[in-house]
Structures
1.
Amino acid sequence: MRYSLVVHLCGVLVRLFGAMFFVPAAVAVGYGEFHDALGFVLAAVVTLALGHLMRRAGGTSAEEAVERIRRVEGLAVVSASWLLIAHLAAIPYAWAGVGLIDALFESMSGLTTTGATVFRDFSQFGRGIFFWRSMTQWLGGMGVIALFVAVLPRLAIGGRELFFAEAPGPSEDKVSPQIRRTASLLWRLYAGLTVLQVLALSMAGLSLYDAVCHAMTTLAAGGFSPHPLSVGGYQNAAAEWIIIVFMFIAGANFALQYRALARRDFRVLAADDELRAYAAVVAVATLLLVLALGVSGGVVPTVRTALFQVLSILTTTGYASVDFQLWSEQAKMVLLVLMFIGGCAGSASGGPKVVRHIVLARYTLQSLRRTLHPRAVLPVKLGGRVVPESILQNVVVFFLFYLLVFSICTGIVVALGADIVTGLTATIACLGNIGPGFNQVGPMAHFGDLHPISRVTLTLAMWIGRLEVLTVLVVLRPEVWRAGQWSAEVRSTPRAGEAP
Amino acid sequence: MRIVIAGGGQVGSSLARALAASHEVFVIDHDPDVADVFQSMDVEFLAGSGTSEEVLTRAGIDRADFFVAATGLDEVNIVACALANRLGHPQTICLVSRAEFLGTSEHGGGLGAFGINRVVWPEAQLAADIERIVTVPGAIDAEVFAGGIVRLLEYRLDEHSPLTATALGGLHLPRGSLIVAVKRGGRIFVPRGTTRLEAGDKVVVMGTPDAMHAVETLVHPGRGGGHLHVTIIGGGDVGLQLAQRLEHVPSVNLRILERDADRGALLAASLTRTLVLNGDGTDLEFLESENVGRSDVLVSVIDNDERNLLASLLGRQLGVPKVITRVGRPANLRLFERVGIDVAISARGAAVASILHQITGGASSLLAVVEHGEARVFELTVSPTFVARPLKDVGTAEDAIVAAILRGDRAIVPRGDDVVRAADRILIFSTQAAADRVRQFFTSESA
């Protein structure tokens, strides 16, 4: 690994991120919140300066090496820049008076589209801050790196490694042979859908500010709401139905949706194994939830509530239209299972993803069949195509590490004083980028009362979960660092023992 | 007629042998070893390539009526046909071995643009034939005609068969069905009312689908409903084709044995609900461990006669009630059936018969070849000058029988008092020797 290249690329990304702060700054100025606006400007200055310095630090050799970036360097750049950007995005919160650990938690929760909050009292923050919260989710939903790959011509070639390190589904899903165009088309689709939802929510009676904030956090499968009672606070059935539709869209594969739209052929949607399984999970879970809740409050409102909550948890959005902490244990069990599923690969959602569950289930079934027919050739198939052995292993390893990270984090959170249900659900809510859990971290509660070390642990869990575990864990391998060097210059004969 | 054949392999030589007596046949092949085969035949052999303009010109392609491209390479066949079409105006027939050349439409399809009149794909033909036989319990041959309104089934009778009870005249076969042929002791003949069937006879029955259902339950009682367990040995072109076809039949439970691991992976990738087993179909232990003896049908389609025969006999030994085996060398067909294989079937045999019929059959169209070419079913349109009269007064040739009259979209399986009219389409079953006479009779009579 060539550190100068990693630093240089992180600098490029960080500097571009600096420009983002001017949007919430303008919003804050618009609402007359000048103190907050100053915080955004300060964050912009710090970020731009840091980005510029890092960019220069790599030297010209690093600049030239961008097109020949290696896989492990791509993983390092993505992991490091996500961590760095989360810190920088926390500056406005810290400026507004939030503690450092909480500011970082809130910022990471936003960028990773988790939606877990440590804000105790919503009235103490201005509209600019809430806008920034929603905007970080919107940026993180389709992927900050994907956006930058789309925008920066310099990443036309090297961007490939970055793009797939940020969205590491089990298979590479592109809508154009060029990665830059893929990123650009997907972002345009994403932005277009957001505009559509803003219009729909406005027509349903939400103010423009609320409509924009919710549209940004719905399509990102994020879940931040400027309202302390989440979506439930608006008591607006039409808005809930609109959000239900867009949550479903946010949890489905965007590349697939793009192909269907571009070809005007919606049969590709019906033919997709993952989307069908996803829809089936939604249907079955909603039915179970309706049964668990009972229809005493009327059939349509109950179905709406059940569907809303199922999609909110399954797509890892994390909105609440009611306080499901008050539900029966049976109803909560349905939601708990959904937390471990997640949306489709290539969507804005987090979690292990439906497609990995499909692959794992089929792999297990084939293994069972193999005991009956030891000589049988039993490939695992997805959409009629054979899933290569390397991807199968990758999926199995993913689940193992996912469970490992889940157990360690839960252990830490419980050891530091939380009850087991809180510990389990807080961890899966953060690792799966969902948001709310049960008990102490329920939908109307917050994470602020957890032990500070638990909050730091959960912040890291969000980061690891967003980058789908392996991206981060590969970079943490010591051999990656031992084989590292500072210089990115091309040498004909590598010299041993060169100091960075 | 002048006929040019490119490729002197099994198809080419069989065609040449059959056509040499009454036609001018040119065979083109670049392999000097092949030339020896044609030394003894009354044909002109040209050494060279079918894709060479010079060689084709020497074969007099500009005056040829038919051009058959039967080399082992699909691309060569296509180019040769295209070239032949440019140099002259023959009817071109092209043999292929892969699906992509078939196009989407039924006749010629995607290759029409190359000036190819007919594409023949022997392996697919074979797979289709086997599929029909597999799905009818007890039958050793099965065909459908006229878009499904007439069916043909062939059975081998055992001593318990109800059909051996009395002479044919006294058997009450379901209305709409007809026993068109009996094969006994190597001789095939059209039975009369006085014929009495015996155990060991093979009988060919034709009729409407409803009637044939009744025949099926009469001849092969028991086994109705439930899954049909089929084991295919050999996952080559034919095995894959057959498996893909059988996957569309919901009641079939399918598995395929393939020796080569890579080929097995490819099979598993292209098949959805077939169990692909990696192992040697001639390995008795393997067959036993996979319970192959419990299958209802065993189809052995390895590309090697010796191994096919061994696999089939092992299957028979394990107790499979119906064994279907592919035979590469047509000369082996009868031998295979004599040693206990229920159905021995050859890809090239069917292809050769169908090409021969196209060249010599004129206006009638060949629908099926039965009993390794000893008999055939063809369709023809009755001459407009034919005087309508009941079938019993027509007095057709011996060893031929009118199996069905197609009028409108209806099929009549005739009895003696049914009337044949001018311009009817009729399905005729005849032995090979009688075919020409029957055709003459119905198409040229002026009363």
Note: The interface with chain A takes residues 258, 261, 264-265, 267-269, 272, 275-279, 286, 290 of chain B (CB under 8 Å).
2.
Amino acid sequence: MRYLLRNLGFYLLAFWASITLNFLLPRLMPGDPVSRMFARSQSRMQPEQIEQIRRLFGLDDRPMWRQYIDYIGDVCTGNMGISLSRFPTPVSEVIASQIGWTLLLGGTALVIAVVIGNLLGILAAWRRGGVLDSVFPPLLVFAGSFPYFWLAMGALYLFGMVLGWFPLRHAFDVGLSPELSWKFISNASSHLVLPALTIVLVSVGGWMLGMRNTMIATAAEDYITMAEAKGLSTGRIMFRYAARNAMLPSVTNFGMALGFVVGGALLTEVVFAYPGVGFQLLAAVQGLDYPLMQGIFLTITAAVLVANFLVDLVYVRLDPRVRVR
Amino acid sequence: MTSSFDGPVLDVRNLRVAYGGDGRSVLGADDVSFSIGPGEVFGLAGESGCGKSTVANAIMRLLKPPAVITGSVSFKGRDVLAMDPRELRAFRWREIAMVFQSAMNSLNPVLTVGEQIGDIFTTHEKLKKRHARARSGELLELVGIDPARLKSYPHQLSGGMRQRVVIAMAVALKPSLLIMDEPTTALDVVVQQEIMAQIGDLRRELGFSVLFITHDMSLMIELSHRMGVMYGGRLVELAPAKALFAEPLHPYTQALMGAFPPLTGPRVHLSGLSDAPRTAGGCGFHAVCPDDRSDCSHHIPDLREVAEGRFVARTAGGPR
Amino acid sequence: MSVLDPRATPAAPAAPPDGTPPAPRRGRTGLFRALLANRKALFGAAVLVVFALLAALAPVIAPGDPSKINSTGASEPSAAHPFGTTAKGQDVLALTLWGARSSLLVGFSVGLAATALAVLVGMAAAYFGRITDDLLSLITNVFLLVPGVPLLVILAAFMPPGTTTVILVLVITGWAGSARVLRAQAKSIRGKDFVAAAVVSGERPLRIMFREILPNMASVVMTTLLGCVIFGIGAQAGLEFLGLGDASVVSWGTNLYWAGNDGALMTGAWWVFVPSGLCIALVAFALAMANYAVDEITNPRLRARRTKAPAVTEARAVTEVRAAATEAPAVNRKES
């Protein structure tokens, strides 16, 4: 329990730091980017919308501490202003309509990469010097060296354009609308394959090598020798004794990897015009849509923190030693 | 089964373990031969790194490449080194069980004690989980631990309790031979005594033989019937424990005995071991050896029988 | 394990009276020598040297402004333009060569700066401990947890565009992981006897940190440096691909940004986006290989069991380490 509470406190702190950063950036940066934004889009805004944006970016006369408290209040109630690139939709609505696709893409890719990567790592460590151990790591490190979005471009060109196996853009065909039908789900799945595949390809190597290395360290532990002396089957030793321990660092690394994969997913979305927040982020950057950029930053941060907490819950189940700590 | 076999339980002949095969090989054990009779406690003494544990692991075939084992290990007439992986898995723990040096490290930290004991029954006796659990509980009672502890994780037990758990696991299948590799080194003296007494009780009850490995000469002489002293991967002396205690013949044995205080008896001055490491060619010990043994500068001599049941590594022309 | 030397206990090196660390120089030259004998390290170094040369020689091989439009747009690779031209009619080869300059510059600047920051934070946390450690670790963990790309975006969007901004932003987002690794390593060295001896003998904290602790973690600093450079090159490309870099600078990232913007993908002009991406991947792969080489040399357990050739040098390295480990305790024991 103490372990969980401590981590929860830490996540809240991290979120508070993100909000503060968001608050300070427009107020401290030179060159007054917010004025530029206003110059571009003031003409089409309603007076109360202008007022709201001014409030969020500190262009009114309230004292700094007052602005800060109001800002935190605004963020916590989901009031993150109005998106300029999709005027006049509020930022929270824009994000709400798109975060689902990002979670679907990032989540699918992450789960596949983690499962495949860890399995490969276990097998490679178990058969040191075997085919899996000598051929895969360099290949996957090479694949992992490509920028996410470039691999996405390559996959799109090869499998989408040249071979025509998969759809080229968006998360589902034009004319369909999201619903729980077989037709829609299969269509969405086929749109998911290429983006997810590129993320998996880039990230699987890291998981594999991480698992391989901890497995090798674990295999030298006395309890593995003991398990062998007990005459247990190879499978049982490999999974119940070695992998079960070796996966613990993997699980703790999950949190960090999560932020990384989300970042990769954002860029991948841009290439596939996948309608998640990453694709929206590009539009926000091009349209100097600061409220939306900040909203996306906070939302993704919150999502990553929540996911980390969920991982902690799992970790407590996996490692009995932290339960008492 | 093989219970009608009336020779020694374990017979090790010319065991040799080499690490690494590419020109720069290191010998972990060299030409080691001994046997253990039914119900006998055989001790293997020597300082850290002398190859005691290597011998133990070689008998269980727990050494991995690049270790190369040659010689012969026969258990009740069966050739252990020739077993295929299936036979080997069935052989391990049912015939020979092992208690490792550190109980903390030999228990899996993420499984409960019950799961780890149960693994033995589900694997070797194909028991259902529920039955395995009941049997595990009985085992814990045998070593004086509350069966409720089955649900505990290793880190929740004290050092002594963990070692008892490991011992309980070792006798789970009533093996004919128990290898104990420094079973009490990590424990304090009081717990050490309790554990040793417990092992003694279990042995009388279940009648297994023991291969007992330690660097603690006084403990060994108390407990074992016969013993061997290892130095630099080789056996330098092999004798009944009492006779060896009364009159150690090899200068290294004398030095080793001088390094430990006896558990009982008058205070004596401890001499300590010298510091000459064994070198590739020579014994190493010869440099500080109290006797004049110029031939030992090249190798440790083979064992020779000098009296009934007493073997010493020395050259034929050596003194006495 | 070794019979040749039964007392080869890996004890902590005993501290000489004056508190100097036990021959850190030998460790470092040993690392370099081992790197020279490692195939992965050699491969990595060779690729990096080639790219550095190409970047340096870009004005010679492809003189003039690489962004100049000097041909009809979107033509396939030909004798005149070996890598083809972009939709605007720029020579892709020239763009790729000139792009190496900015990408390598930014990548290595980010790597060096982020590593320096990480070394400072990690060592300060490990050396001073207590509140300093708690606070620095907290900050490090916050930076680690906050997802990088969105943070990059808001930072870059609010700062004035330009290469300096890109470098600054990447250092801010990239130092934390290394700091955590370096802190752990420095903390374990901080606990060694020779550091305690140095503290007791009244050496100044800065001297202890940089003369006693740092030389003993050279290999870890090296791997974090390589990791940071990989991050720098990849993240710069990502940032520029989103249009957050300085679009007037030619780099591999902006090349890809323009390739995407001009619809190279949709028109099938693969030659526009392949070279820059491949270059990023090759450089990152070379760095990663060098990184694994350092890892393998310093952590013998990870080494693949391979046949003769490398084994000789590896064996030598091991014996050296073992010799270093045994010398000191042997002296000690005779005295006691």
Note: The first strand of chain B starts at residue 10 and ends at 19.
